[in-house]
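Chapter summary example.
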Amino acid sequence: MVFHKSALFTDMTENYIEPCEPKPHEKVTIRFRTGRNNVDKVMICYHGQKVMMKKEAWDDLFDYYSYHVRMSEEILYYHFEVQCGRRSCYFNRLGVSAEENPIFDFILIPGFSTPDWAKGAVMYQIYVDRFCNGDTSNDAQSGEYDYLGKPIKRVEDWNEPPEPVDLGRFYGGDLQGVIDKLDYLESLGIDVIYLNPVFVSPSNHKYDTQDYDHVDPHFGIIVRDSEENRYSKRTTDKENLEASDRLLIKLIEEAHKRGMKVILDGVFNYCSSFHRFFDREGFYANSDMPYEKGAYHDKESPYRDYFKFEKEDDKDSYEKWWGYDALPKLNYEGSSKLYEYILSVGTKWVSKPYCADGWRLDVAADLGHSREFNHKFWQDFRTAVKEANPQALILAEHYGPSKEWLTGKEWDSVMNYDAFMEPLTWFLTGMEKHSNQFHEEWLGNANIFWTSMQTAGLNFSHSSGMVAMNELSNHDHSRFLTRTNHIVGRLGERDSRDAELGVNKAIMRIAVVMQMTWPGAPTVYYGDEAGVCGFTDPDNRRTYPWGHEDQELINFHKEMIRIHKQNPELIKGSLMKLYAQPFVTAYARFTTKEQTIVIVNCSDCIRDITVNVWRAGVASNTRMNRIMVTTNEGFNTDIVQIPVMKGKLEVSLLPQSAIVLKHKNKGLMRRRKKVINYMKSRKVIDGNS
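The structure predicted for these 689 residues follows.
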């Protein structure tokens, strides 16, 4: 008998674990798939033991084995051993293996679940100052205040590109602008809006928080204004702050009416030198409101221990984040009041009356001065936020291995650089995600792509992976469309127009196809869907081109988002690599009932390939519906039937193209218990069989 190792499969989706988010002490069914009548034994290996699994069900292609285990309060690590005659192999998260390696074990975390609404949700990231100006009366005015030693500037031309030093330049985008465009976001199919920081801050990016308790009036509403001390008046006046907070409430309420969620950006590693706790610029000391004195000017300030001063008598000896004078690092170890205050901020905005749906946490692993401390803080943060809003999502910005943070006690998931943005960028463009380098050996290298995706994916449990933020671009990296031109550089070294030279929309469309069919939460950076280009920060922060959008690209996004949302296997199904050769790859997203096959050719020539789709459960002799094809000429959603012969799909791929195919199984899975009961009722076997 031939041992069909390619038929072996399991993962951590609901097809193979039931329930896939178990509670402590709950009974769990774990399943494993083999070829039909193809193996002698399947054993699950855990806690130092090997236990025989029982054949539970079968269909025309596969047998399904199961085992029931009672969870404890500890993480369950497991893998499988399969025997066929004298031959055997192991199966772990990387697939078939000749030997056991616990590093690659499956992991099941009791008590860890992520919000159902976030699983596979389509997110949309908005850099507020550059999205839409809905209220010109709140615009920051040129010369209103000095930032980083220079007067700020109000940019009069919405379509003017950013400058190399851009932090003090304001275009006027605001929360009212987001409200005005909610219908547009709904028409795209967006489920979640992720807002870059909206709290009081002197910069356009607002990652240097001035006041965690209020929305910035330049994004909100300015009720009271004054030509004298204009910035101080605008950002410390109680009426302005409360009115701006109410506008955020309105935005979230309007989003919720449309079935959309809203998550906020939390920057808790450091604050702005403008912050009332620090007040280097003296805005709060000179305010009409009775604010406590800041730590910079007064050693007796109640906030002094919120910061770390190397020399008690030297006010400029404060610890700075990455050495930036404008970013004093918060000293959590030195102040329990600061610790509790930030926890209260975390709970405030996900509670009534604001009701935000979660947090994205900026450079979260760098919060304190030690890894141990950071773990403790984020455990307390999770406890506080989830008690306030059990359905709140907690996503972290993190580079590098994230497994230790995703054990169910801290973050729900991360911005998925390592297991999505970077490998996809390498494969389709050969570029580094900042457009700092081009490596020809990365371009079209399917082995690097899959090895990177699979090994980095080991950091995720199933619960974390389903809500991982899968982005092509964001505010910290070059626009994906710009990466397709293979031009290395950034603003200052190159003209902003260079970011638009020779861009390849066909490659962009392939990227979107993969983004919308990959496990996780596909996240669109505002303007990507409209054809916005840009080198890395700050050029990636161009304004949304209202009235000048690439409508074809917008329509393509709408269609791919529709496909993502209408096919449940793209939300909760398994992922399987089916084909990987230079410039060409194919994979399946599937359940036992439905299968989607994605085939990609990022080369500039025609490729003829054969894909073994039977491995994903596609019947041996059937037809698949092609529901999307994209080429260098455009895209088409007309349904075309493609035959599957003996479990194989033969396709001819046009240059720089992607195909999405759909199949539904008509055959029935037979379950052993039901078959035995039927046979007993027919007296084919006796009751002792």
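To summarize the output: The longest helix spans residues 238-257.
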